[in-house]
Design a protein that fits this description.
16 strands; alpha/beta; 39% helix; UDP-galactose 4-epimerase, domain 1; Rossmann fold; 8-stranded parallel beta sheet; 12 helices
């Protein structure tokens, strides 16, 4: 039986990926269950994962090297590490840089060293479109030339994590793969990201806060497409960096209008000063993902919003006590 370690298993992407795997795969889920956003949502995901007989969960802080080494037996006979565990959020990284260094760089370094020392041959480290900064109309291409000056503390910690993995495993016969995600949304999404916040705020007739004009455009990518990409990546026998994003962008104002239409509720929008280091647009090149993996997104915004709203309504009671906030709010 194939054995896969999924870090950040109680996170948005980790949860959905683990749910997608065959019952013939043994899944080792690792998560610190920290409070980067409301942990009640992580617990809701964990409750779902624990229903699967092939899933085993371990609560570990990977930035603590001693604790990781004390639990090294977890990694016996592992075929693949999918490292999705991270602390996300550009603006919050300026308020708590040490936590981002711990969770995104130190934890990744510790895990890469363990991978090297015990001989695991496949390592996937999830990364982010935030590395590219504001691309405007240009495509964000998977190379290092334009990344010499990371555009935020968050981006720097993720990029350095990528660099550490590639350097630590460079002399080994490892497959090292780096998927970079672009504004992922969908069921069980993060409550600090825009689409789920907008659905919650509009549905409950609360104030919808927009920092800036709302004309910022995002490559919103539905979770099922990302999970499909990760499954293709797990089967691909080669190293490389791959963008997983939508080739169609939407403004925040356009998304709010769509949600208003679908819920038949008018949003109470308040516009405030543009958030620090907020970008206008990041547009992914999908060349690597298309040519090497045969992947491109297939879920349009209308379908993705319908599925996300359907999930939200199903779990409305469970979500009632969860705080939907911006990543830099307390």
């Amino acid at each position: 039986m194939e054995k896969i370690v999924v870090t950040g298993a109680c996170g948005f992407i980790g949860f959905n990926f683990a749910k997608s795997l065959s019952k013939q795969v043994e899944i080792i889920g690792i998560d610190s269950l920290n409070d980067a956003y409301d942990p009640k949502l992580k617990e809701l995901r964990l409750d779902e994962l624990n229903k699967n007989e092939n899933f085993n969960f371990f609560e570990l802080n990977l930035s603590n090297k001693k604790i990781l080494e004390e639990n090294i037996e977890i990694f016996n006979d592992v075929d693949l590490i999918l490292h999705l565990g991270a602390r996300a959020g550009v603006r919050q990284s300026y308020l708590e840089p040490n936590k981002y260094i711990d969770d995104n760089t130190s934890a990744t370094t510790n895990l890469a060293m363990l991978t090297k020392n015990i001989g695991i041959k496949r390592f996937i480290i999830a990364s982010t479109s935030s590395i590219y900064g504001d691309t405007g109309e240009k495509f964000a291409v998977e190379n290092q030339d334009e990344l010499a000056d990371p555009p935020s503390i968050y981006a720097a910690t993720k990029m350095f994590g990528e660099t550490m993995v590639k350097n630590i495993l460079s002399e080994e016969e490892n497959i090292v793969q780096i998927p970079r995600f672009f504004t992922v949304y969908g069921p069980y999404g993060r409550p600090d990201m825009s689409i789920l916040r907008f659905i919650h705020w509009i549905s409950t007739k609360k104030e919808v806060i927009l920092y800036g004009t709302g004309e910022q455009r995002r490559s919103f990518t539905y979770i099922d497409d990302v999970v499909e990409g990760l499954n293709k990546l797990c089967k691909f026998e080669g190293s490389g960096t791959f963008n997983f994003g939508s080739n169609t962008t939407w403004s925040l104002n356009e998304v709010i209008s769509k949600i208003e239409e679908k819920l038949n509720i008018e949003a109470n929008v308040t516009y405030k000063e543009r958030a620090f280091r907020d970008v206008d647009m990041v547009l992914p090149s999908l060349e690597n993902s298309k040519t090497k993996l045969g992947w491109e997104p297939t879920t349009d915004m209308n379908t993705g919003l319908d599925k996300t709203i359907e999930w939200y309504k199903k779990y409305e009671n469970e979500l009632a006590d969860i705080k939907f906030k911006y990543d830099y709010e307390k």
